[in-house]
Design goal:
This is SGNH hydrolase-type esterase domain-containing protein. The protein is mostly helical and 60 residues long. The protein has helices at residues 2-12, 24-28, 31-34, 45-59.
Length: 60
Amino acid sequence: MQDWNDRVFTYTNRYSNMVLVPTYDLFEQNLLKYISSADHFHPNGDGYERIADRIVQILK
């Protein structure tokens, strides 16, 4: 996961009109709280809410 994040960060830094919104830290300590129990991969409602909060923080 960290390798993926590093590659995406490097890629987005090449372009001034792209912004990477980091979310790994939201999930690493709260995985069971924010990940869907249906597929154990995608965020659940609370997880998506945390992601939305982070996007708002970045846009301010």
